[in-house]
């Protein structure tokens, strides 16, 4: 998402940064290009006008024009305004009652049912006990889909067979939740191909009869400007509390996200990517603004690292290093740990790599994924003894492994060189640990504290 807008804005910022000073003329040029970039990315005209006006007001300030690095000042201003446009700050779900009720809203095809399951999985990971409630009484396929998703994710599921009375279904689901100790109910309500009176009347009945904590509108980010009208309509009639944007990995424009927040005044609370059932993620406006401008998203990267961290595996890995036995098994384990961050493409999008275009990023990602698969095949072609003891690889063993993996000897030797380099790096970590023993424990503590404050780097 935002790929086109990101590339255009980064080009404009880079061009402006090359100027030694920021004048009214080159500022006007930059703003004109930013306006075009926003419109081309499907941002509504009203939003564009408001955004440009605010950026211009701040950028024409005396402090900016006299700045030593005007290009950097422009980056900050645009970044701040993008963050404001996207909602200023993260808006967590307000689930302060027991049980709490979340009503999922949206048209057919927006990803509402899938998002309900993804939301349930997220809440389960947070220690809650959610209950998925099938309330799309007109589309049996939706009920079947939700039931399948609930079974696949081992989630509690409620259906009232034969009933088309949404109020009765909600009441029975609430009774079931209390007896089953479910502390969050997720109502997967009926969707339509378009908003109509019958659908709205049903949703209004649920809203009036039950204490709803969150009314979340699920929006397909690929819908474009039509999504803004849908969001405004739902908000006017139901006063939604926020939105969930789906398919963020599919739309290269993303302008509807900027327009929805501005038009409704309601925050984007959660985002979803892909068809795979993985937990919904928090939406952070400031982080997204940084990603759009090519500044990466290190905070999200660290959070993903924390989620992927396996204490048991880390302990085993450390023990291998202390024994000075970095094996192919360790290499494979390290590679699998990297995969837990998600795709290489997603990982690269979180890193601050100026000038890296979408096409370049995808090429690097594609080649990297291919290399990862080759390495797995090569290691899988080794015997258990060879994987555990790299030193026993001689010419005949290497030839056999390369043949079994379907790679050339030059490719296999290149991998061995890569492995040897990593093994030497790991030995270096072991030497650092051994250096700070006994009387040098205080020195070690100081170094570790410094590394913690510097994101893991000892300088």
Largest sheet: 8 strands, mixed
Terminal-residue CA separation:
35 Å
Query: What is the share of helical residues?
Result: 55-70%
Contiguous runs where pLDDT drops below 50 for at least 5 residues? 435-440, 454-459
Number of strands: 8
Total of helices? 21
Mind explaining what this structure looks like?
The protein has 459 residues and is of the alpha/beta class. The two termini are 35 Å apart. Helix 11 (255-264) links the parallel strand 6 (242-246) and strand 7. The protein has 21 helices and 8 strands. Mean pLDDT is 77; it is low at 435-440 and 454-459.
Entry summary:
The chain is an alpha/beta fold.
Topology summary:
Blueprint: H1 3-17, H2 24-40, H3 45-59, H4 62-65, H5 70-85, E1 100-105, H6 112-125, E2 130-135, H7 140-152, E3 156-158, H8 166-179, E4 184-189, H9 197-209, E5 214-220, H10 226-238, E6 242-246, H11 255-264, E7 268-271, E8 281-282, H12 285-292, H13 298-308, H14 311-322, H15 328-339, H16 344-350, H17 358-380, H18 384-388, H19 395-405, H20 409-435, H21 441-453
Helix pairs in contact: 1-2, 1-5, 2-3, 3-5, 5-12, 6-7, 10-11, 15-17, 16-17, 17-19, 19-20
Throw out a few tags for this protein.
21 helices; 8 strands; eight-stranded mixed β-sheet; 59% helix; alpha/beta; flat; 459 residues
């Amino acid at each position: 998402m935002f790929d086109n807008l990101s590339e255009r804005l980064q080009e404009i910022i880079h061009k402006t940064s090359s100027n030694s000073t920021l004048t009214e003329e080159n500022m006007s040029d930059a703003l004109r290009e930013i306006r075009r970039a926003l419109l081309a990315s499907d941002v509504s005209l009203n939003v564009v006008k408001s955004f440009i006006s605010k950026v211009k007001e701040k950028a024409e300030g005396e402090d900016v024009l006299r700045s030593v690095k005007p290009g950097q000042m422009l980056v900050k201003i645009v970044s701040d305004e993008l963050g404001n446009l996207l909602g200023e700050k993260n808006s967590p779900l307000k689930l302060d009652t027991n049980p709490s009720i979340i009503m999922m809203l949206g048209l057919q095809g927006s990803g509402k049912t899938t998002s309900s399951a993804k939301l349930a999985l997220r809440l389960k990971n947070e220690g809650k006990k959610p209950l998925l409630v099938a309330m799309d009484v007109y589309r049996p396929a939706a009920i079947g889909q939700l039931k399948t998703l609930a079974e696949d994710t081992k989630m509690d599921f409620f259906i009232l067979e034969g009933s088309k009375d949404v109020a009765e279904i909600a009441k029975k689901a609430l009774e079931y939740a209390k007896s089953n100790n479910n502390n969050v109910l997720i109502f997967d309500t009926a969707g339509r191909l378009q908003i109509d009176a019958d659908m709205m009347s049903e949703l209004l009945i649920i809203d009036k009869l039950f204490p709803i904590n969150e009314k979340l509108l699920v929006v397909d980010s690929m819908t474009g400007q039509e999504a803004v009208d849908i969001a405004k309509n739902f908000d006017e009639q139901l006063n939604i509390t926020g939105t969930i944007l789906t398919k963020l990995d599919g739309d290269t424009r993303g302008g509807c996200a900027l327009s929805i927040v501005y038009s409704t005044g309601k925050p984007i609370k959660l985002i979803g990517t892909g068809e795979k059932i993985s937990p919904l993620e928090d939406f952070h406006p400031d982080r997204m603004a940084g990603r759009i401008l090519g500044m990466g998203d290190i905070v999200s990267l660290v959070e993903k690292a924390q989620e992927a961290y396996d204490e048991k595996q880390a302990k085993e890995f450390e023990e291998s290093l202390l024994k000075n036995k970095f094996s192919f098994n360790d290499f494979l384990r390290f590679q699998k740990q990297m995969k837990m961050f998600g795709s290489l493409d997603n990982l690269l999008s979180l890193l601050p790599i100026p000038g890296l275009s979408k096409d370049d990023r995808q090429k690097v990602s594609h080649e990297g994924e291919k290399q990862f698969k080759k390495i797995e095949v090569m290691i899988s072609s080794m015997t258990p003894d060879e994987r555990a003891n790299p030193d026993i690889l001689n010419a005949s063993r290497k030839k056999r492994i390369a043949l079994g993996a379907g790679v050339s000897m030059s490719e296999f030797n290149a991998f061995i060189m890569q492995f040897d380099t990593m093994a030497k790096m790991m030995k270096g970590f072991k030497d650092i640990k051994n250096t700070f023993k006994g009387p040098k424990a205080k020195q070690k503590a100081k170094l570790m504290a410094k590394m913690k404050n510097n994101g893991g780097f000892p300088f």
